[in-house]
Design goal:
The protein has 337 residues and is α/β, with parallel strands linked by helices. 34% of the residues lie in helices and 26% in strands. It folds into two domains: 114 residues, NAD(P)-binding Rossmann-like Domain (Rossmann fold, 3-Layer(aba) Sandwich), CATH 3.40.50; 192 residues, Dihydrodipicolinate Reductase, domain 2 (2-Layer Sandwich). A nine-stranded mixed sheet has the order 14-13-12-11-7-10-9-8-15. It has a six-stranded parallel sheet with strand order 3-2-1-4-5-6, with helices on both faces. Helix 1 crosses helix 8 and helix 7 packs across helix 9. 38% of the residues are buried.
């Protein structure tokens, strides 16, 4: 019998179990160092649980691994995947510990890694990609995008101080920058230059040391992308404006519609899209379907049936943008990429 191994049974690990089951993959074994999380996952989803990951990899036929642990320890389990030659999906990251060596070893050993690119599977982002690539907007001048959330709303069942978003290196605001940059750069590529600011602006209980606001200007040669990310917005927000010389695009994820202004008719054209319901406890716009589609893409790619949209090399380039923005602020300069 073949199993998927889910490493880390917190909120994302449980979500990935649901994703696998929705795709018909019911043979799952879970691992977490916290016994309470292991017992909860076993009770909720009737999966196998073991408290020794090496024992799992040695005694179960593992066909795929889902790494849903905090980002600062992703590398530990990626290296285990390499050791046992198991293809692995990795949640969104914000640190690149030993990533160069992992990329090299994955190529030498032909082990497939699929870093998360969740928003690339959102129906609105899919439609925006189609519109941009169709040239309907004309020559694009600029992109204005705000992604804002309130950090204490992420996990209403535990304190911010109890998990990785309260740590400076893996702080909530810092993590969301590459989370957003991944879909942006999969659509537009890597910018030529970046300049930015980041800082702590308010007090968040349990997150004294994190930077909660990031602002990036990315130079794409013929146009500029202005990205604002924060974890201080009391209403969860994603809003995008794209200005072309023919038309303007506007998207607010609260409205489930992409609007395009046509100056020829002086009217807004609406492109609606449907989203599946969110899991209980999550923002209504965090559609469960994009997570399911992401795991389906991983499974298809690991079986060599299709190509997965993201790669470790691209993830490294995205993280380099984050680090360059921080370097820009700290050294008061524009950074060429």
């Amino acid at each position: 019998m073949s199993f998927f191994l889910v490493v880390g049974l917190g909120s994302m690990g449980k979500r990935r179990i649901r994703n696998l089951k929705s795709l018909g993959h019911n043979d799952i074994v879970g691992f977490d160092k916290r016994a309470d999380r292991s017992l909860e996952a076993k009770k909720l989803y009737s999966i196998e649980i073991r408290d020794n990951i090496n024992e799992i990899l040695e005694n179960f036929k593992i066909v795929g691994m889902i790494i849903s642990v905090p980002p600062d320890i992703h590398h530990i389990y990626m290296k285990l995947a390499l050791t046992f030659k198991v293809p692995a999906f990795i949640e969104a990251s914000v640190v690149d510990t030993d990533l160069d060596n992992i990329i090299l070893d994955s190529k030498l050993q032909d082990v497939f890694f699929a870093p998360s690119c969740t928003l690339f599977f959102h129906p609105a982002i899919k439609k925006i990609k189609e519109i941009v690539e169709s040239n309907e907007l004309g020559k694009i001048s600029n992109y204005l995008y705000h992604s804002g959330q309130y950090l204490p709303d992420w996990h209403n069942y535990e304190k911010v101080s109890d998990y990785y978003v309260s740590i400076k290196e893996t702080g909530g605001g810092r993590e969301i920058v590459p989370f957003e940059l991944t879909w942006i750069t999969l659509l537009l590529g890597i910018p030529k230059r970046v300049v930015g600011l980041f800082k702590k602006t308010i007090e968040i209980d349990g997150a004294t040391n994190i930077d909660d606001t990031y602002n990036l200007l990315m130079d794409y040669g013929n146009n500029i992308f202005n990205l604002s990310v924060d974890v201080v917005s009391r209403h969860a927000t994603r809003r995008l404006v794209i200005n072309g010389d023919k038309k303007q695009l506007y998207w607010d994820w609260d409205e489930n519609v992409i609007k395009i202004y046509d100056p020829q008719s002086s009217k807004w054209e609406s492109h609606g899209y449907e989203i599946a319901a969110a899991q209980n406890g999550y923002n209504k716009n965090i559609t469960e379907q994009m997570y399911i589609d992401e795991i389906a893409s991983f499974v298809s790619a690991m079986n060599k049936e299709s190509k997965y949209p993201n790669s470790l090399e691209h993830d490294k380039d995205v993280l380099n943008i984050l680090y360059s923005v921080e370097n820009s602020d700290l050294n008061n300069k524009i950074i060429s990429l």
